[in-house]
Amino acid sequence: MSSWCFTVEVLALLANPDLTSALERTPCRSDDDTHQPAATRPRQKQRRLGDDEIANLLVRYTDGTSVRSLADEYRIHRTTVMDHLERSGVPRRRCVRSLTDEQVAEASLYYAQGESLAVVASRYVVSARTIAREFEQAGIPTRLRNGWVTPT
Question: Per-residue DSSP letters for 62-131?
Fold first, then answer.
């Protein structure tokens, strides 16, 4: 009997003498490892694309489909999509604009009428930061949060 088990038994008997019979029925064995490991998060299942799927992914990307859309469709991470593009030598598109010049001009009219960047952005399904960046590139002044116009 290990010293740890003996200590536990003695403490249990001192705390509650009625446990004597229960302790005799369940002997503590030092060779019995009853420790259960803590529950761990299941490992992510790797999704491997076949050659046909990779070829289709490359064609779809070159036709204009976004990396995020491809990642969602193929149920893979966006960096995996980018890895496939790099391995295949497909040049990446950089900084694809979400809005056209006409849309930015139209959005500036809504903004000039008093709508916030967030409200204008929701009209075009982009973030308020995207609208602010487009306005900055087009030279359109934006209001500070308290209503003041940013100095240009």
Answer: HTT--HHHHHHHHTS-HHHHHHHHHHTTPPPP-S--SS-HHHHHHHHHHHHTT--HHHHHHHTTS-HHHH
Q: Which tokens go with 151?
A: 């100095």
pTM of the model: 0.42
Q: What is the pLDDT of residues 52-67, one digit of tens each?
A: 999 999 999 998 888 8
Q: Please give the single-letter amino acid code of residue 104.
A: V
69 to 64, 65, 127: CA distances (angstroms): 10, 7, 17
Helix (H, G, I), strand (E, B) or coil at 31: coil
